């Protein structure tokens, strides 16, 4: 190996490490920065415009300027500034400009014309029936986002006027929201488990504007409206932002306003949230932040590897540990009805507990304190039991809620399942014997789930990450790398059980490496820092030094030896909304360089067992 490469990696590692440490806030954790979102911005300004156009004129005008400045050359918009144009963002930005734009503004008028031309090419035109069919094709049976989109298009006059327009909006059964939460999964609802506020708001405005002809259904809906609104109010966090998400909060606002409920506390709180969430440049992010998620990832990147000793000082570790423990849910969650014990993605009140963030928190705590630390064992045990109770019957881990498997964002998924298995494995020996036995059963079931859900080519498909340059928008590089990383962290006995899966996954990663040495979301997709770093980590953990080194060389070139870290929009938010996170490339690249340095400095006898000859035989 060239000594110059080793020196460059060490220097790049140190630069990334120091910059990551510098990005902590005053309280000692990381908030990150999600990209601005054209979709979030356009729905926010429509909601504020409809609430009070004069009072919110400055925010609306600033949002319009941001949208005009970030239209793509083809006339459409993507979800993030780095994204190619897509149907949903373009359609809603087009509607927002028509609704809120100044008729005498030449730039706004030109943008409407350009967006209309883009929609002509993708949807066949801007006729209401064509638009409705295009939205339904995009989301299929999932009405979580199709319902709000069609509602906003109707409110802004894009689907016509009166009953004919409202007939194109699906009637969501908001009356079911008043039933006990345990029954929801049996109704096979067309909205995901965490979307009850949208179900209530969209269902109510559709009912008010175009009630059903069935007298019994109409009577039931009228009868339960007040109670459903009280439920939505109870689900709303103290800062007004449902799930810390601008889109769902804005959709709920415009729906309740148009349903005649503009004076409700829900709308007042939601408007406050939208105003506070606006950024100085006039844009809105898709969500406020991913503070818990990026902080646990940062701990992992900083606390692992040969150069990690002393990076996080004792005071840093204690502050991070206290902060992280304070984010653990201690009460039943009002939106998903989840039991106490889990962690959500943010330290803000709209966050919801989920399996991925809970697993990340457990792994971070493992690096911040010893297994025998009595101050954290009860919290860890509570979290592990929470995850055990969340595991689906198929052995996989869902994100938020057990048993909702009809729609994509509620199903079990490989990357979260593997992440959970790793968290179980690292804490197992700290538990009482009865919990150890439950963990062992859960791990074996999880491994069988991963075996059944490995794609025929050896890859795994993740749930919350995608790639806009892959034909089906999946990101098997992310899913496969994260699953291989997690499985490689299991005990020797469990690694033997999963060995065949890991070998197939590693073989797939090697096969899809780009000629430039990096990785994209799949074969032939443009290389990104995030995807390359994850693939390098997986290959380092499995002893694939040649491919890993090519990836490291690409990372050094792409980051200018750790000096720059442009983010790619690989994050896949609720209802297939894309985002980039400024900290992802920095965290992932640091972790990859650290893992590469570890295998480079590792004695031959201690290197991972999977060899390239075994993979290719």
Describe this structure in words.
There is one protein chain. The protein contains 24 helices and four strands. The protein is mostly helical and 617 residues long. The protein folds into two domains: 359 residues, Glycosyltransferase (Alpha/alpha barrel); 250 residues, Glycosyltransferase. A two-stranded antiparallel ribbon has the order 1-2. A two-stranded antiparallel ribbon has the order 3-4. α1 crosses α23.
* Structure summary, number of beta strands: 4
> Strand order, biggest sheet?
1-2
The structural class is mainly alpha
Domain module count = 2
3D shape = globular
The main sheet comes to:
2 strands, antiparallel
Measured by DSSP, the beta-strand proportion falls in: under 5%
Uncertain stretches of 5 or more adjacent residues: 610-617
CATH topology of the largest domain: Glycosyltransferase
Overall CATH architecture of the largest domain: Alpha/alpha barrel
User: Could you state the order of secondary-structure elements as H and E?
Assistant: HEHHHHHHHHHHHEHHHHHHHHHHEEHH
| Straight-line N-to-C gap | 26 Å
CATH C-level class of the largest domain is Mainly Alpha
- Radius of gyration (CA) equals 24 Å
Mean pLDDT: 91
**Roughly what percent helix?**
55-70%
| Oligomer class | single chain
How many DSSP H or I helices? 24
Q: What keyword list fits this structure?
A:
2 domains, mainly alpha, Glycosyltransferase, single chain, 617 residues, two-stranded antiparallel ribbon, disordered C terminus
Secondary structure elements and their pairing?
Elements: H1 3-22, E1 36-37, H2 38-52, H3 57-69, H4 87-100, H5 106-123, H6 128-139, H7 143-155, H8 162-166, H9 196-209, H10 215-235, H11 246-258, H12 265-277, E2 284-285, H13 291-303, H14 314-326, H15 355-368, H16 374-390, H17 414-427, H18 433-452, H19 476-488, H20 492-511, H21 529-541, H22 545-558, E3 571-573, E4 577-579, H23 583-601, H24 612-616
Antiparallel strand pairs: 1-2, 3-4
Helix pairs in contact: 1-23, 2-3, 2-4, 2-11, 3-4, 4-5, 6-7, 7-9, 7-11, 9-10, 9-11, 11-12, 13-15, 13-23, 15-16, 15-17, 17-18, 17-19, 18-20, 19-20, 19-21, 21-22, 21-23, 22-23
